[in-house]
Amino acid sequence: MLRCGQKSIIFLINNGGYTIEVEIHDGPYNVIKNWNYTGLVDAIHNGDGKCWTTKVFCEEDLMEAIETATGAKEDCLCFIEVMTHKDDTSKELLLWGSRVSAANSRSPNP
Fold first, then answer.
1. Burial level of 22, CB count in 10 A (0-12/13-18/19+)?
2. Nearest CA-CA partner of 82 in 15, 30, 35, 31
3. Could you tell me the pLDDT band of residue 7, with boundaries at 50, 70 and 90?
4. If you ran DSSP here, which 8-state letter would residue 106 be given?
5. Could you give the CA distance from residue 26 to residue 29 in angstroms, rounded to a whole number?
6. Confidence of residue 109 (pLDDT cuts 50, 70, 90)
7. DSSP code of residue 16
8. Distance separating alpha carbons of residues 61 and 20, to the nearest angstrom
9. What is the Rg, in whole angstroms, of the alpha carbon atoms belonging to the chain?
10. Which pLDDT score, from 0 to 100, does residue 31 have?
11. What is the pLDDT of residue 45?
12. In terms of pTM, does the model score above 0.85?
């Protein structure tokens, strides 16, 4: 994307884990080491091309990052990592997870 001069805005929603997997089947394997995704993009970028990264923790930071990405950094590939709480999910996703969990615990059809 950098080599081709892409000027996209990429949002990575980071809840620090596998929330849906926890809802389906919880276990210690769902506790993962959280990556520094903006650091990874910066390392890949390594000063070549036009790239801008930021990490946001609240709605105000996100609004400011979007304003920057669509304004001062509009000529860059922009990567915005949005940090959310690990349990920040919708009721519908929780319901779906519990249904999948129940289906997974049934014996298979012969």
1. middle
2. 15
3. very high
4. S
5. 8
6. low
7. S
8. 26
9. 18
10. 81
11. 81
12. no
